[in-house]
Amino acid sequence: MALVCAGVSMLFLVFVGGKDADTARARVTGAWDRTVPLIRQGYLPSVLPAGKDMAIQVLDTRQRVVASTPQLAGRPPMATFHATSDSVHAERVLCSPAGLKGCMTVFSYKVYQPDGPWLLYVAVPTVPWYGNTAALFFAIGMSLLMTAMTAGGTYRLIRKDLVPVDAIRAELAEITATDLHRRVPTADKNHQEINLLAETVNDTLDRLEGAYKRLRRFTSDASHDLRSPITAMRAQLEEALMHPDDTDWPAMTAAVLGGVDRLQAIVTDLLTLARLDARAPLDLSPADLGQLVRDELGRRTYRIRIAKDLQQGVFVDCDRLRITRLLVNLLDNAERHATSQVLVSVRATGSAATLEVADDGAGIAPEHRETVFDRFTRLDASRDRDSGGTGLGLAIAREIAEAHRGTLTIEDSRRGARFVLRLPLSEALQPAGGRDGRTAHAGVSGR
Ligand SMILES: Nc1ncnc2c1ncn2[C@@H]1O[C@H](COP(=O)(O)OP(=O)(O)OP(=O)(O)O)[C@@H](O)[C@H]1O
Ligand SMILES: [Mg+2]
């Protein structure tokens, strides 16, 4: 607005300056019109009528002042220049011409008389480019007013627009760890960008609240799972101490040892998870996934039949200990839930290696296929805590898969649960220029 005002004011002032200059010129012409006939007719009075801010002098052929306006009475000629031989009129700006104050524009005319050319000087105040000070102050005043009004209006408008942002800020400032259920307000539909901001903040708060709830549940589950065996062991020990003679000490010791085993298992799992959470570096090396599975299956015997479909030469970069741990967790679950058999398969699909563990048990309902990966989650069917595990097995398995840049999911199957692990194929052993591991590593497949 300031720039626009400056531009418009310039134009306005130049216009006023032009107008004022025209007016001054017209006054000079008027003076010429009035004086020249008097000179020609010989009726020239020695004191000419005074015009406002205008001074006139008439000089005869010998450069003597024969007539002038009152302020120049008895004064020498105000100027010495005169028109050239081929023109009758000349004009100059003189700052303080003789006998006058301030800068004046002096016009000089030749008036031809029988005894030679006389000179008529008419002086008027010089018109500045902006015309007059009133116009200048008017332009400056209007510009300041317009700029101030625009600035004020814009400030109020922006403040009004930013009210929702301030509301979001205030709400966020109040949301603490215990107030995570609160959400920032959304603005009206005129503030689309601010609404998007509020929605994004609310999404972030949703996720934060979810993570916070999971953490709280995990902490309470962990303490509960640790407390149960401790309470049981404490009761057994107190009972034994109260009736030392009636106690079967070896049996009691074995029972307490069972509790200690369980505590140890939970603490070991928690430590494994903590290390995985901390993203401890993996000891990666290329390994044949099929061979790894075969080795693990050969290491121990299972109460049910394990069918194998293991493609050879499916190489992945993995931490053997951790991938074996993942496999054991899946096999333990499958063995626990299968009715008669478990199928373990390994194959390369595109750029991924796929390991599947499928059993023919009751399976896992689609709505639980994500929650079973949460820590300490055991479905109702597995709630028998003595025979069941700690509920950390799948959480650990998924963390291991993700640490290897892979995924572990439960997918549809005709019967039972089907766990699918996908890992990127080893890049070190990929054929040059190709991503399809199948061609490089496809080998004997069979059970
Ligand atoms: N193959 C399966 N068939 C049916 N349900 C399963 C299967 N595998 C896991 N689940 C369900 O998922 C839950 C979580 O499994 P997870 O391995 O994490 O814990 P867990 O086996 O109970 O204990 P842990 O493995 O820590 O000893 C199990 O309690 C069980 O209810
Ligand atoms: Mg398990």
UniProtKB/TrEMBL annotation:
The keyword Chloroplast does not apply. It holds the Pfam family HATPase_c. It is an enzyme of class 2 (transferase). This is histidine kinase. Its EC number is 2.7.13.3. SUPFAM superfamilies: ATPase domain of HSP90 chaperone/DNA topoisomerase II/histidine kinase, Homodimeric domain of signal transducing histidine kinase. It is found in: Cell membrane. It catalyses: ATP + protein L-histidine = ADP + protein N-phospho-L-histidine. InterPro entries: HAMP_dom, HATPase_C_sf, HATPase_dom, His_kinase_dom, HisK_dim/P_dom, HisK_dim/P_sf, Sig_transdc_His_kin-like_C, TCS_sensor_his_kinase. Residues 159-213 form the HAMP domain. It comes from the Bacteria. Keywords: Kinase, Membrane, Phosphoprotein, Transferase, Transmembrane, Transmembrane helix, Two-component regulatory system.
